[in-house]
């Protein structure tokens, strides 16, 4: 009996020492308790005779390039509602490497989107095919200060950009929107609900390619290097805010004969991606990608909304093409736990589907998160315009569970077993990151095999969890 007790004591001590030596950390978030450091992780030797819930294999899938967000005018306005002393803290919390969320990517808008103060483009002079009147003057008020504040927090921040609508004179109905609504002045007789909204004439197509090229140059002159362009946000969207419909045939032609040659001449360092694709029809993607003249220019594919339905198919079909989730589904301004659950399912779908980067939509908004065109949407950070109080929403913590720990350059690792709600990554520094959700309303025990070890822990009900494991 004494001998058995000594053996048990020695075994317990061995587990404790092994866990400490392995430097396991564990952070959990529930609706009522955010970003809590948990204890109770045990580490034991891997036993081939025991079945673990999940095993992290040595097979590396995609390389993660990072997590990011979108910088919009209404976000900048909300940010400036904060007291001066709080602004730098929030920038650091979102963007400074290693401090908080630690975003490494930002999406920019070329002209107006639905979170601009109102519609604008960089050239509304009808027939100015040579872009003599092109100007980014509007962006000096909000976008460029926002970007420079982000760069101050993270000098290595990466940027990519897309327009929601070309200048109105380039479009068949001469309006920024495809559909009439209660927040625009488009007559129903001038809606464009099918076909191409952009005028499919060489002069206009060449002018739009030049417009995008001049944007890159103008931003570069401001010290902002935009490394990638996706030339149309949601080419399948019909709505009352800035939009533009493109058929697959038109996208193929524009890339092959206009955008590709222009950027090859003006900005060969800037990547051209197909996106942002918001349809579930892979045949449309194939039509562009498999065209030799268009396909040779395309370095990646951006997907959002209905694109989640084909992300795995695209990854399997084009294994050498990078994929990005370009816009987190934005919800209804609820800022609640249910929104975080929904975003979790998106994260899981896209990352398991093969994307290398994931973009949240608005990082910062005020009050109800209302867009200029009347849609209340979610955000990671919400500012009370009357008090200046900051609300870090559940989605803030969900995104932080991944972006704080998964470093750019990390490998997504294949897992085996009961792995529906687990994601594993191997960071460049050698640490293994395990992100796992417990969607049950009761505690859930899990054992995860990592190399020669098994990490065991019991998660709180309805929780998000991140564990880092260092040998």
Short description:
This protein is of the alpha/beta class and 471 residues long. 29% of the residues lie in helices and 25% in strands.
Sheet bearing the most strands, described? 10 strands, mixed
Helix content: 25-40%
Strands side by side in the biggest sheet: 2-1-21-18-17-16-4-19-20-3
Category by helix and strand content:
alpha/beta
Distance between the termini: 35 Å
Q: Uncertain regions: pLDDT < 50 for 5+ in a row?
A: 1-21
Please state the overall shape, judged from the principal axes of the Cα atoms. Answer: globular
Question: What fraction of the residues are assigned to beta strands by DSSP?
Answer: 15-25%
Mean pLDDT: 95
Count of alpha and pi helical runs: 11
Describe what you observe in this structure.
- With 471 residues, the chain is of the alpha/beta class.
- It has helices spanning 2-22, 73-79, 84-95, 143-153, 202-221, 248-266, 282-289, 292-295, 311-317, 337-353, 394-403; strands spanning 25-29, 36-37, 42-45, 54-63, 66-70, 105-109, 158-162, 226-230, 271-277, 298-304, 322-327, 357-362, 364-366, 381-383, 390-392, 411-417, 422-426, 432-438, 444-450, 453-459, 463-469.
- The strands form 3 sheets. The chain has a 10-stranded mixed β-sheet with strand order 2-1-21-18-17-16-4-19-20-3.
- α9 (311-317) runs parallel beside α10 (337-353).
- The radius of gyration is 24 Å and the shape is globular.
- It starts with a helix and ends with a strand.
- Residues 1-21 have low confidence and may be disordered.
């Amino acid at each position: 009996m004494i001998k058995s007790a000594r053996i048990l004591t020695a075994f317990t001590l061995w587990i404790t020492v092994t866990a400490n030596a392995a430097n396991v950390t564990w952070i959990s978030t529930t609706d009522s308790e955010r970003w809590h450091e948990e204890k109770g992780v045990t580490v034991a030797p891997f036993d081939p005779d025991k079945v673990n819930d999940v095993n992290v294999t040595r097979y590396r899938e995609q390389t993660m390039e990072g997590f990011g967000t979108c910088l919009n005018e209404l976000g900048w306005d909300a940010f400036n509602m904060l007291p001066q002393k709080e602004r730098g803290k929030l920038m650091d919390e979102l963007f400074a490497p290693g401090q908080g969320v630690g975003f490494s990517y930002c999406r920019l808008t070329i002209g107006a989107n639905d979170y601009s103060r109102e519609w604008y483009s960089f050239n509304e002079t009808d027939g100015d095919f040579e872009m003599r009147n092109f100007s980014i003057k509007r962006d000096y008020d909000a976008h460029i200060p926002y970007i420079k504040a982000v760069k101050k927090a993270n000098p290595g921040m990466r940027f990519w950009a897309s327009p929601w609508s070309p200048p109105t004179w380039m479009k068949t109905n001469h309006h920024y929107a495809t559909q009439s609504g209660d927040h625009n002045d488009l007559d129903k007789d001038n809606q464009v609900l099918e076909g191409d909204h952009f005028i499919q004439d060489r002069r206009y197509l060449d002018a739009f390619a030049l417009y995008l090229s001049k944007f890159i140059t103008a931003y570069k002159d401001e010290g902002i290097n935009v490394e990638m362009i996706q030339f149309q946000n949601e080419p399948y969207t019909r709505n009352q805010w800035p939009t533009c419909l493109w058929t697959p045939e038109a996208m193929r032609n524009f890339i092959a004969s206009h955008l590709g040659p222009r950027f090859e001449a003006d900005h060969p360092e800037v990547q051209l991606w197909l996106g942002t694709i918001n349809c579930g029809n892979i045949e449309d993607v194939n039509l562009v990608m498999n065209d030799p003249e268009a396909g040779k220019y395309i370095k990646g594919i951006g997907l959002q909304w209905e694109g989640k339905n084909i992300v795995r198919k695209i990854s399997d079909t084009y294994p050498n093409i990078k994929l990005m989730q370009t816009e987190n589904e934005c919800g209804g301004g609820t800022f609640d736990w249910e929104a975080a659950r929904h975003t979790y399912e998106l994260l899981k779908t896209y990352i398991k589907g093969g994307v290398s980067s994931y973009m949240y939509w608005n990082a910062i908004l005020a009050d109800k998160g209302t867009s200029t065109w009347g849609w209340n949407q979610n955000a990671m950070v919400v500012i009370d315009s009357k008090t200046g109080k900051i609300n870090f929403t559940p989605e803030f913590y969900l995104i932080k569970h991944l972006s704080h720990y998964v470093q750019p350059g990390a490998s997504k690792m294949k897992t085996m077993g009961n792995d529906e709600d687990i994601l594993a990554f191997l960071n460049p520094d050698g640490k293994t990151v395990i992100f796992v959700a417990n969607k049950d309303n009761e505690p859930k025990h899990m054992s995860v095999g990592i190399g020669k070890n098994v990490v065991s822990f019991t998660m709180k009900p309805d929780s998000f969890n991140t564990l880092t494991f260092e040998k």
